[in-house]
Amino acid sequence: MTRSLRELFRPSSIALVGATDKSGWSLSAFQNLRDHEFAGKVYLVNPRTEVVHGETAHRSLSGIGEPVDLAFVMVPTTAVLSVLREGAGLGIRNYVVLTAGFGETGPAGKRLEDEIVAFAVEHGLTVLGPNGNGYINAAGRTTPYGLPIPAPLLPGPVGVVLQSGALASSVLSFAQARNVGLSLLTSMGNEAMVSVTDVMSYLVDDPGTRVIALFLESVRHPAEFARVCLRAARAGKPVVALKIGTSALASHTAQAHTGALVGDDRVIDAAFRRFGVLRVHSLEDLIITAGLLASVGRIDGRRLGVVTPSGGASEIIADRAEQEGLELPAFAPDTVARLTGIVPGFATVQNPLDVTGYVVVDRTLLGRALEVVAEDPGIDAVLLLNDLPRVAPADPSVTLQIAGATAERIRRSRVPVVVVSNVLTDITEFGRHVQAQTGFPYVAGGIEHGMTAIGHVVRWSEAVRQVRDVAPAAVVEPPAAGPGEVWAEHRAAGLLAGHGIPVVPAELAAGEAEAVAAAERFGYPVVLKAAADGLGHKSDIGGVRLGLTGPDEVRAAHREVLAALRDRGHPDAATLVQPQRRGGVELLVGVVRDPAWGPAMAIGLGGVWVEALRDTALRLLPVTPDDVRAALAELRGYGLLTGARGAEPADLGRLSEVIARIGELAVELGPRLTALEVNPLLVTGSRVEALDALITWS
User: What H or E segment, with its residue span, contains residue 213?
Assistant: First the structure.
């Protein structure tokens, strides 16, 4: 597909089929090609009019009489297939179909769309759309695009792929306003043939693209998406995505607590993390973050040095740095000494550094301070707060000289330097001129979005080092279970124990005597639980009795629990007796199978608090012990595991190994497993035990 897309995006001649003065789409497409200096030939096709847009029109593709590389199709819905038939006969292989009225309208439109795809596949055609605006190849000045493209059209290293035609122009305008150059912008339409992942793959191979930016309404081909994101990570090309839309997982997982904690949107987060994709939450952050990644690449560390001309801005940056998980370390003594010799005497040398408003008097001050801070051995990157000039002075030579000197210092810096403006405003024509003349770097727009972008770049730099291909796991023969069957603890725990996962000892008891005998073998106090398959939350029916200290309490608890079970349609139920465990930290480890991404694991504080606190970290399976340890560190309750307030610290190595093994088992059980939950998983020092478990089969 990459080769065919290369031909699609780099035509030497274009035919606008259905061109008419009555259509704004047609006029925009024609003007875009003319105004942005498309170097090839443009043909207009209209069977009823001899002149369109002031140019001679051809009555058909056949009437052109010359080879055509790309047909931009704007005819009525029912006429699209006939255009493809005629074009295929003439050797035209590439099509952009702007026309709507296909799969997005319902079954009848979907049938028309399927006919187009079947014909295209049979005849080796490449079709972008339908129901899409087209694309903008800024580097190649090729703009078959159905909405106006404002000037200037800036070529650059950011490739943009959008599942929204209406937002494409807004994204383009904002990129131009912030001086972010694009390699390619594609409005995907219905993705009937060419998909988002196809265009992403093309951009991974495109030497002119350094960053891929996505606007996604859905991930239609998860396996392909994962593969191309891994390819991008290996190529060192960041993928930044704005993914919209949330929903809950299917109700068949509701019997487990995990179903309330894992939703499609959280699984998307986990998938993006696994495949090295940066997720942003606004169009502004999509473009600003992509622009920064294209400019600075990786930032290998969280230690940030800050140089500003404003005390107020320094305080805002300090607050935002903490929110982004960035560190502002104290400057080294030598750095402090050198800065003291540069800044005015009333300035305070600290990080963030406010060189004060004296920059109005000494316009070299900010750049000289930057040079010193960038050499500090305890800094991984520098934030320079510096706006591009908006209005040209009477004599711009001094402005250009200062900007050029600062740009040179940034180029020589041993660490990345991120330039951030105070607020998010458009870069003016004079600001563009300064950048072009001096090589001044990309300026991230505004402290708020700039700090967000820096945090994203740091996180991507950490994540891309951990991105790895995941070998498919061997699937074990799953145990016999009926469709939709729910295994309660006595069967679920047996399966866990049989696969190397530590489980608290337990005995089934059909009668009172058996329950008492089991309790005395374990030693008091004991726990007695309801044991019946198909039963979800035992505590909801009074099916868990804790702290039983003698035979009489065990007998009474056994009778009461069995009575509750029989009232709910479990006449042959039994009870489960276990030794009472005290102390430690209760965790939940739950796995649910997402229909798109496969098994996903939630790790969090467990027991009765799991849904109330909702303190969980999510990962796609499989996971390594290191993955688990990183997930545990994300929990707000992580301090409970590290010995907060004198409590015994958990053996995090042992705990991570056990949780990773639970994940391995969930993967090995294959697609018949719908949900597996251990709640609680009790950790006390180096002892890790599953105290309860639940398994749901598909």
Answer: strand 211-216
Closest to 359 measured CA to CA, from 304, 307, 397, 428: 307
What Cα–Cα distance (Å) separates residue 27 from each residue in 19, 24, 470, 597? Answer: 8, 5, 49, 43
Give residues with Cβ within 8 angstroms of 456, minimum separation 6: 240, 278, 280, 285, 289, 292, 293
| Largest separation between any pair of C-alpha atoms in the chain | 101
Cα(236)–Cα(449) distance, integer angstroms: 23
Residue 421 has which token pair? 């403006």
Q: How far apart are CA 184 and CA 286, in angstroms?
A: 15
Extended beta strands in 597-697, E state: 598-605, 616-620, 673-684, 687-690, 693-697
Closest-CA residue to 481 (of 492, 473, 471):
492
**What residue has token string 């607050």?**
319
- 200 φ/ψ angles, rounded to the nearest 5 degrees: -60, -45
Q: Which of 62-71, 85-94, 246-255 has the lowest mean pLDDT?
A: 246-255
Residues 6+ apart with CB under 8 A from 685: 584, 648, 649, 650, 651
SS3 238: coil
* pLDDT for residue 472 is more than 80: no
Three-class HEC string of 380-431 = CEEEEECCCCCCCCCCCHHHHHHHHHHHHHHHHCCCCEEEECCCCCCCCHHH
Q: Pick from 345, 355, 291: which is nearest to 156 by CA? A: 291
Which of 653, 627, 626 lies closest to 641 in space, CA to CA? 653
Instruction: Please tell me the distance from the alpha carbon of residue 232 to that of residue 212, in angstroms, as a whole number.
Output: 9
User: Amino acid identity, residue 651?
Assistant: D
Neighbours of 112 (CB within 10 A): 18
CB-count burial class (<10 Å; 0-12, 13-18, 19+) for 500: exposed
The Cα 139–Cα 176 span in angstroms is 14
What integer pLDDT is reported at residue 537 of this predicted model? 66
Q: What gap in Å lies between CA 657 and CA 636, rounded to an integer?
A: 21
- pLDDT tens by residue, 402-448: 999 999 999 999 999 999 999 999 999 999 999 999 999 999 999 99
Count, in order, helices (H) and strands (E) of the chain: 23, 29
Q: In which element (H, E) is residue 261 found? A: helix 258-261
| C-alpha closest to that of 62 among 81, 43, 37, 41 | 43
Q: What is the pTM of this model?
A: 0.89
Q: How far is CA 525 from CA 516, 550, 683, in A?
A: 12, 7, 19
Residue 212, H or E segment: strand 211-216
SS3 286: helix
Question: Which one, of 622, 681, 661, 655, lies nearest residue 500 by Cα?
Answer: 661
Which tens digit of pLDDT belongs to each residue from 615-660?
889 999 999 999 999 999 999 889 889 987 677 899 999 999 999 9
pLDDT in tens, 174-230: 999 999 999 999 999 999 999 999 999 999 999 999 999 999 998 988 999 999 999
